[in-house]
Design goal:
single chain; alpha/beta; Glutaredoxin; five-stranded mixed beta sheet; 29% strand; globular
């Protein structure tokens, strides 16, 4: 399990806009790296739209926002276009990065157990170290929590 102060695991993943991005691309900047279960679902849509609505404030604080899920790049592209998202959504269909950040968890819904992404946000500082971790994120008010720690 990752802890505050740990070096953030490196990654290189494709985005919905056809580019491949890595954590190294953002060296010297704060990174708000958020993991979410699925494109275009109610909670994930509210979370993404909240990041978009507050995007200029996040940028003013020197932070970039990056979303990661196991959805395909095509799904990300449609989701970003539908909601006017201006930050990258990265596709981790192999779940390699999702597992490296330890957000692939057993979940349950109506008595049924299954594996899925636990909504989690990591704030990574300019030196690539984990500054803050938000586990089991509640969408409402989450962006404000992030702005407060930046």
């Amino acid at each position: 399990m990752l802890n505050v102060g740990d070096t953030a695991p490196q990654f290189k993943l494709p985005s919905g806009n056809g580019r491949t991005l890595s954590l190294k691309d953002f060296k010297g900047k704060k990174v708000v790296l958020y993991f979410y279960p699925k494109d275009d679902t109610p909670g994930c849509t509210r979370e993404a739209c909240s990041f978009q609505e507050n995007h200029s404030q996040l940028l003013r604080k020197g932070a970039v926002v990056i979303g990661v899920s196991a959805d395909s790049t095509g799904a990300h592209e449609k989701f970003a276009k539908k909601y006017g998202l201006s930050f990258p959504l990265l596709s981790d269909e192999s779940k390699e990065v999702i597992k490296a950040y330890d957000v692939w968890k057993e979940k349950s819904f109506m008595g049924r157990k299954y594996m899925g992404i636990e909504r989690t946000t990591f704030v990574i500082n300019e030196k690539g170290r984990i500054q803050t971790i938000f586990r089991k994120v509640k969408v409402d008010g989450h962006t404000k929590e992030i702005l407060n720690v930046l």
